Amino acid sequence: MTLRVRFAPSPTGDLHIGGVRTALYNFLHARHEGGVFVLRIEDTDQQRNSEESLKTIKEGLSWCGLAWDDGPYYQSRRLDRYKELAKELEAKGRAYWKTDPEKGTALHFKIERGQQRFTDLVHGTVSFTYTDAEPDFVLLRSSGFPTFMFANAVDDHDMGITRVLRGDDHLSNSRSDERRLPS
């Protein structure tokens, strides 16, 4: 299996040094392993996206010599796929609609309570305990757009991403290798 990694910036601001670092690690890892470096644009935050930010991201990556092999893919163009999987999760009893007076009606994912574990190549075995105190998270907003965590999991699955290199700030929203989305 060919290694596939991705850099998935959100066009809501300028490309910053942390983003360049993440892109560089992914790019170098793909080159070292003879893999594929994918560029995916996480543009589901319609209120904050800007064409100028998207242009800056692409130009910045090019200026740094970080040429992507596949993409760019745009999450806003994959809405039908997210909705399809959301319907499957709802049909299987794994998701439900809930109305919030301030945020409208959104589709929520039923979190499995208890301890969840996965293996991280840097940190080893990582575990999180989900209790009843933690709310189920939103899959689809009232606008019909997916949340970051849902779109990311779907895209990583569909695009055959084999390894995710990113900052520790995203460790808690990683998913286990043993879990699979409906195909």
Describe the overall structure.
- This protein has 183 residues and is of the alpha/beta class.
- It has one domain: HUPs (Rossmann fold, 3-Layer(aba) Sandwich), CATH 3.40.50.
- 30% of the residues lie in helices and 25% in strands.
- The protein has four helices and eight strands; from the N terminus they run βαβαβαβββββα.
- The strands form three sheets. It has a three-stranded parallel sheet. A three-stranded antiparallel sheet has the order 4-5-8. Strands 6-7 form a two-stranded antiparallel sheet.
- β4 and β5 form a beta hairpin.
- It is globular and about 45 Å long.
- The relative contact order is 0.18.
The gist of it:
With 183 residues, the protein is an alpha/beta fold. The protein has helices spanning 17-33, 51-63, 79-91, 148-158; strands at residues 4-7, 36-41, 70-74, 95-100, 104-109, 114-120, 124-130, 137-140.
- How far is it from the N-terminal to the C-terminal residue, by CA? 19 Å
Helix content: 25-40%
Work out the radius of gyration.
17 Å
Number of domains: 1
Number of helices: 4
The CATH homology group name: HUPs
Q: Which fold name is given in CATH as the topology?
A: Rossmann fold
Give, in spatial order, the strands making up the sheet with the most strands.
1-2-3
The description of the largest β-sheet is: 3 strands, parallel
Topology:
Elements: E1 4-7, H1 17-33, E2 36-41, H2 51-63, E3 70-74, H3 79-91, E4 95-100, E5 104-109, E6 114-120, E7 124-130, E8 137-140, H4 148-158
Parallel strand pairs: 1-2, 2-3
Antiparallel strand pairs: 4-5, 5-8, 6-7
